[in-house]
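Hi R.,

Here's the chain you asked about this morning:
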Amino acid sequence: MKVCLSLAICACAASLVAQDSLQRTGPAVPVATPVRPAVVTARPVAAPTHSAATAHPVAAPAARPATAVPQAVPVASRAVAVASPVTTAAPTTPIIPASPAESADSPASRASGPPKTVLPPPASDLQIQPSWETQKLARTYVFSIPAPRGQIVDRNGVPLAQSRVSYNLGVEFPSPPQFSDADAARYILEQVTLARSLLKREINVDPDRALKHYKNRGIMPLYILTDLHPNEVEIIKNRRAPGLTLQAAYQRVYPQGSVAGHIVGYVGREGGYSVGQVENNELLWPNSEGRSGIEKSFDEQLTGRPGVMSVTYDAQGHKSSEKVTVPPTPGQTVVLSIDLQMQRLCEDSVKASKRPGAMVLNDCNTGEILAMASIPSFDPNDFIPQISESAYAQLRDDPNHPLLPRAYGSAYPPGSTFKVVTGLAALNEGKVDPEDEFGGEAAIEIGGITFRNWKKTDVGPLNFVQALTQSCNTYFYKMGLKCGFQPIVSYAQRLGLGAKTGILIAGETEGNLMTPDYMMKVYKRRIMPGDIANMSIGQGDTLVTPLQQALMMGSVGNGGTCFQPRLVLQLQGVDDKITYSYDIRVRDQIDIEKGVMKAMRNAMINVVNGSGGTAHVAAMEKVKVAGKTGTAQWGAGKNERVAAWFAGYAPAEKPKYSFAVVYEGKEKNNEVHGGTFAAPIAARVLKEILKPEPDEKDKTKKGGLRKKKPDDEDEEMDNSDEAPVRPKIVKDVDEDLSN
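And the predicted structure, written out as tokens:
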């Protein structure tokens, strides 16, 4: 059978895989003064292996050996090999409308955004020119071969997004094209009918569009199905039908499915197959472009350099040759700070709560984001090759909003977690001393309005450690009024609240702070004492994202260093050289006084471990967790619900991780509290990632592990400021929503 254009592309793809296997040897050679060695990743192209038994768009990746959850470490001190991609199923319908792109703010204008990619040279630079012969039909066309997109990998080189080889089915016309309209229509119908009988599925083709294709570009195949199953590919190959042809193309695949779906994002086709006149340098098949997440933010870097193919026709209009003169070059690899195992742990823990929510896990000492879970999520494979209108509508109209990246794209009132900001501002500015006591009345009046504590009885005078441990509202009303709004707002801003964090991903929201400008713009008045009281306990119009909350807790835990968060560590070229790296950067430094730091740390430890604390469920045997719970009403009208928080850092003595969890309660359910709903989510994750690491000398002869003995040199926390034993405070259904 005559060698067709599709099979030439297939051969091109195969040669790229073979070439890649020879090129990828040895560790990367860093360039541009990288901060870490490169991750060696496998070629983002591989022949697909499908399972005909499932209709799900992606099969589970090959089982990985069970390992302990890794600690927060740099990408790697050596090269890390990445497995080749995998499998995806064919679409269930042949012609599927393109999905609309999600609306999101692009970070392209940021100074710290992705570096610009050098554009591919024009065809003239490649010295490939169309030669138009004097004969009527003799000519040479030059086509562009779309390049495979680069990979997106986690910090250890585990693939999150890759490219693979896919096959499309087309109707190939006899050359030269001399059919009448009726003959062309009959020929197309015959081939479509044959394909239906061979593949045993419905194939829909628009007759008018098909005829227009033949008239304008009959030398090119008319593609009637995309992304065939492997068994379908074999059927077409074995049948050797002269009127049917296969085209090899690159397709996106997400081997982890829905895990980190909001971070990775998805791609969509830039356009459909043309039915207009054949033009030089046109793409052989539609290119893909990022529509959300990292796929969108780093679309330019992930997009590779197209290849070049020339096809020559003789004087009689028969194809005489086709040649790949320049193979396509894959896009760059984007290495994320995300740790896939930690990401999976966080997602599974939020899922276990059976309610929408989010969890962010951050490295306190670098600003690197280790996990950013938003539940419910979605599977980016559902968008490949295209998502149907009905499937997209189902995602869009789902009341739990699976397309919403809650971790960074949704803001909630922080509730009592904001008391950490109020306390830090008042204590560090010398407005209040940690030992100063304020009364813990059940309610006080401010500006003619009654402000209540969640406890219905007077708990007596409290100092800061005792008040934060018990989350006493009336103490923080008084602290806030004595401090004034300006220090509170200033510290909140310095800790990163009320503004986008600057992570290199589309769709981040900035939250909100009750600044004088905001109050004047929205309420046409200045800040009143009642506003300060509300602000002091995280109520009113204050809004924060889980990402902001985790970063804020990390800055408090490490002693005041506010890192610029990093979601992307570096970019790598196809030769595994680092082309760009994102350095650790300190955004602000808050000088927290030693006595203030001691009081804050003891108070947050007591929240988890103290007698009057509100997050006992997060306590661990050998590791101390510092945290703060919070609960606040969220939403409006019939959509009003409760946002329950637990945020903090661990280990408390030498923080490695900061975290934030938000749990969305059901409508009209005020029995949701941070300590009982959000804290268990964090506890499940912390108990996994903070497991003591076994020593080699502790291993038994049979390979078992003994429990590690406590290290006598571990620094013990001074709990001299622990709140005295008081009658135990039991939360009930009438508890105020500020805790």
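Residues 5-58+75-95+129-321 form a domain with the Penicillin-binding protein 2a (Domain 2) fold (CATH 3.90.1310.10).

Let me know if you need anything else.
M.
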